[in-house]
Write a structure and sequence with these properties.
It is a single chain. The protein has about 180 residues and is mainly beta. Helices cover about 5% and strands about 40% of the residues. It contains 1 helix and 11 strands. It has one helix at about 90-95, and strands at about 5-10, 20-25, 35, 40-45, 50-60, 65-70, 75, 85, 110-115, 120-135, 140-150. Strand 4 (about 40-45) and strand 5 (about 50-60) form a beta hairpin.
Length: about 180
């Protein structure tokens, strides 16, 4: 069994895919990735108090951060002693385009990062490109992309549990003999 490469599956219906799901293959598998979960709080100032009161506002969407390496460098060979390679930005621009608004969708496309048993669906919110190797005339042939995804749901907000507020008055109707 060969090595399974990480891929980015782009939702169907995008301009780039012509109405079908497209895939951007990663040349190299990541060495690590980060998944973050957070909540938003607001600090309220209490007059005369020694500290602030933190109040929960909402949960935040999980994020995935991963570094992807792209390399088109071809080292010198005996038959051709010059360094060659193709412009790596041709490959990296495929990922960068996924942060832009798609004309058919009126928003950036939903992208799923898949690698083995790992699957994370969301939108790409940030791509940082770092070019690390160049041919003698300045063409970049190696790049590292730090890509951040924010999880979203196609069906809108999904609540895992129904809200219950402790500050609402609750009552229960009892029949005779119940307590």
């Amino acid at each position: 069994m060969g090595v399974e490469r990480a891929v980015l599956k782009v939702e169907a219906g995008t301009e780039n895919g012509g109405g079908r799901e497209t895939t951007v293959s990663c040349q190299f598998n990541p060495t690590e990735f980060d998944v973050s979960h957070s909540a938003r709080y607001s600090d309220k100032i209490i007059p005369g108090g020694r500290s602030t009161l933190s109040q929960f506002i909402s949960g935040e969407s999980p994020t995935l951060s991963v570094s992807l390496l792209f390399d088109t460098y071809l080292p010198p060979m005996l038959e051709d002693p010059t360094e060659t390679g193709m412009d790596v930005t041709i490959m990296t621009e495929e990922v960068v385009r996924l942060t832009q608004v798609d004309g058919n969708l009126h928003r950036p496309p939903i992208v799923t990062f898949i690698w083995g048993t790992i699957s994370f669906q969301g939108i790409i919110t940030d791509v940082k490109q770092k070019f690390t190797m160049f041919l003698e005339f300045g063409m970049p042939v190696r790049a590292k992309l730090d890509v951040t995804f924010r999880s979203i749901s196609k069906d809108g907000l999904i609540r895992e549990s129904p809200p219950a507020s402790p500050d609402r008055t609750k009552y229960k109707v009892l029949k005779e003999g119940e307590y």
